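Q: Here's a chain of 368 amino acids. Please give me its 3D structure as tokens.
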Amino acid sequence: MLALSLSPRYIHRWIGGYARSVVERLAEPRPEGPCHVLFALCDHFEPLWGGASAEHGRQRVDRWEREYPALAGEFRDADGFSPRHTFFFPGEQYAPAYLDSLGRLARFGLGEVELHLHHEGDDATRLEQGIRSYLRWFSEHGHLSHEAGGRPRYGFIHGNWCLANSRRDGRYCGVDSELKVLFETGCYADFTFPSAPDETQPAIVNQIYWPGGDLSRARAHERGTRARVGQVHSDRILMIQGPLALSRRKGRFGMRIESAALTANDPATESRVDCWVSQSIHVAGRPDWIFVKVHTHGAPDVQAASLLGEPGRALHRALQKYNDGDRFLLHYVTAREMYNVAHAAMHGLGGDPGAYRDYVLPKPPVAS
């Protein structure tokens, strides 16, 4: 969880994709009128991180329930919403008290729960069975969006970044066809990446895209088709990436890898927020809706102290630069809401993206 200096390790896997994203951004016309910045904080929320006891995990969750409303209440976006935290909760750490506590935050409109999962040496059958069990447990607490027929829909982040067997040694996954399993169990989008400088980082950088080709092969998300106005796929999940860039290290010579990770040792700064926004991740054809997805591991004590304290407030103060009502309008969104807005863009809708928070997938019952 340290700040990342520029290292050549695995950079060959994604530097070409990053260069292409820079060229594409420079070649695109500037949007007319204000830009809407959609900001989602996606938390790999692991109460038992570091081998914590069940009671310690309960204390960590309770801290978020106790302290997050005070922080969130200090800030508003262009729609009047407070910051909205998405807790990607690890299915294998399920405990009723944890989900009930997060449900109380959801009732106040301060966040939603989605699925995080660590698994190793798995196969497709066991993976599907496990996911369906976790979805059932989450749903019993009112979490997750549901289709009209009651089928749960969920966003996903893979533990250790190893989506679809992304490591060469096969560790932390084991299922080549994971993208297929996710789609068949109701996953609407993956929010795992970026993961640089880890070897799991795909070649596609700074995009919202549809994974291409055979979804039963490992790293099927390594290639894909960029999401664009007028084109929507219904046979696969959407990949929503956070910003990845090379940026200058403040106060030092040299460069760093900016992978949109918030840690106690590398908290948000105004320059980092500027870098995230400047990557201009958007659905092709709708450049005035900029998607900024950042990630963190918010449950460990030192991380929680940072995110719930002054560094967390500094993040939201820096974001207010993008809520001046003239050049920029800020929208705090959950992962589900970000997906809904992306779909609205693909369907050719425009104007205020805040109107499309529930466009495709409704709120989870606990937040309704």
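Q: Can you summarize the key feature?
A: The first strand starts at residue 35 and ends at 44.
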